[in-house]
Amino acid sequence: MRSSKQRTLSSTIVIKLGTSSIVHEETHQPLLSILSSVVETVIHLRSQGHKVVLVSSGAIGVGLRTMNIPQRPKSLSKKQALSAIGQGRLIALWDNLFGQFDQRTAQILLTRGDISDRTRYLNAVNTIRELLSMGVVPIVNENDTISVSEIKFGDNDTLSAITSSMIHADYLFLLTDVDGLYTANPRKDPTARKIDVVTSVTDIRAQVSTSTLGSSLGTGGMETKLIAAEIATAAGVTTIITSSKLPSMIIDTIDYYTALRLMSLPSSGAASPVPKLQNIDLDHVNTALDLRRPPHTVFKPSTVPTRDLKAWTSHTLYPAGGVIIDIGAHTVLSRRESGGRLLPAGVIGVRGSFASGQAVRILVRCFPEAVSGETEDTTAALSLGHTSTPKPEAESAFASLSRSSSRSSLSSSITGDLTSDTQTIMDDDFHATDEVEESDSWEVKEVGRGLANYNSVQISRVKGLNSSRIPQLLGYADTEYVVENITIRS
Fold first, then answer.
1. Domain segments of the chain: what residues?
2. Which terminus of the chain faces fewer neighbouring Cβ atoms within 10 Å, N or C?
3. Any idea which UniProt keywords this protein has (predicted)?
4. pLDDT for 379-437, tens place per residue?
5. Among 42, 51, 54, CA closest to 18
6. What average pLDDT does range 462-488 have in this prediction?
7. What are the strands of the beta sheet with 359-366, ordered from one edge?
8. What is the fold of 12-262+275-299?
9. Which class does domain 319-367+442-488 fall in?
């Protein structure tokens, strides 16, 4: 009976190995014992019905060994050349090790530019899923040979998180040189304490020190793993940090959480769905069920995962510009029922030049409390064009705000005149709308990202107006929303 349940819990698993887990930090020799253990672990997982994707760093490290260069170069062209030399040898090494078990592999090289186009993104998703359905183990790496800073993922921790989000993986394992997330570097601080369960990456940042971890060969460290965990868990992926020295712990960890889920089923004979991991109290269930917990840190996935399109917008696109919104619009967009769609009434400015369909940063411009001397509610009311107490439902004020809305003297003194429908757009210049003048008393901060439905000039023309004015000013109206698929950071 248990084996039957186990089959229903087959999972899609992404395993990420950093350069320090693949090649020796000083000699640059491949760490064959670790690589062989990883291969045996993947073979075992596949025999249990799981689908596995490997995200493998190490191309530059292997290139250093091949060319007998003692240390990682600083120039981009040299790193790209070493990556080109090492990538072929790296994938050949993996293919040879998996070949001992007659396991087929496939190489997938990506840059952020490859998946910034929605069609190419979906093609990448479909390719990986097709390979998994064929019983192949995809081996993913960033295409360092052609990557530049504007289209790099930054490190393979981020790449692994985006990959797990793309294929809706169940687990992301980040293998590193320690067995979890610690409050400090355990190699240097004897008082460092391991954190077993993380429910909020934002909250945990204040409790841990991440600045001292990482190797001379790799580009990441524990901070990049926190970023990866934030991306993956937002997409509903259980993220786990554990040691690369014992890859078999991946099997033990999955068996542990499978047992937790099965033991959490109601004792009645009625058929019940197996509970999701995010719905289990991981802080207390271990002692209650007397299970041996493998050493690791688990980041619990979001109970409300980000939709695929929003995840793509937030994490795979390089923003071409920004749309500045008022505090009232930010309040509305922070509510899930808003649908992540922005009406022109909430826009007070545009930053940079961008085309329709490109990703944009969502920026909030507000008074610092010390400067404004106003409460948050008063500032929110001002941003919506009201001086009275804001209505409980900000949506109505947000949606109905138009150029003809009456303004109080206080609002007018800050927002100015709304007589201009057009505005010149200059690159890298803050395109302040007429109603908001430049002032050191304002603060601008990024709160999210979205997809622009109109270009920067068009959005600048309809800023602050009722959406019914769009056809009149632009000559057409594909939609009443100027930005959609917005993800607001918590």
1. 12-262+275-299, 319-367+442-488
2. N
3. Amino-acid biosynthesis, ATP-binding, Cytoplasm, Kinase, Nucleotide-binding, Proline biosynthesis, Transferase
4. 333 333 333 333 333 333 333 333 333 333 323 322 333 233 323 223 333 343 334 44
5. 54
6. 89
7. 430-432, 347-351, 321-325, 359-366, 443-452, 483-488
8. Carbamate kinase (3.40.1160)
9. mainly beta
Residue 185 neighbours by CB distance under 10 Å: 17
* Six token digits for residue 73: 């170069």
Is the confidence at residue 172, as pLDDT, over 80?
yes
Give the separation between CA 478 and CA 9, rounded to whole angstroms: 44
Mean pLDDT of 3-20: 74
Supply the pLDDT for residue 350.
93
> Which of 243, 229, 113 minimizes the C-alpha distance to 177?
243
> What per-residue confidence (pLDDT) applies to 265?
63
pLDDT score of 130 more than 90: yes
Q: What is the dihedral of CA 300, 305, 308, 312, to 10 degrees?
A: -60
Nearest of 279, 432, 472 to residue 348 by alpha carbon: 432
| Residue of 262, 264, 259, 250 lying closest to 298 (CA atoms) | 250
Which of 7-16, 218-227, 343-352, 470-479 is least confident?
218-227
- Pair of tokens at residue 469: 């004015």
Q: d(Cα 204, Cα 239) in Å, to the nearest integer? A: 14
Quote the CA–CA distance of 23 and 27 in Å, as a whole number: 8
- Kindly state the DSSP code that residue 435 receives in the 8-state scheme: T
Determine how β-strand 430-432 pairs with β-strand 137-142: unpaired
Helix (H) or strand (E) holding 459: helix 456-462
Q: Which residues have C-beta within 8 Å of that of residue 247, sequence separation ≥ 6? A: 15, 34, 37, 38, 40, 41, 175
Assign residue 306 a region: left if phi > 0, alpha if psi is -120 to 50, beta otherwise?
A: beta
pLDDT tens column, 26-61: 888 888 999 999 999 999 999 999 999 999 988 888
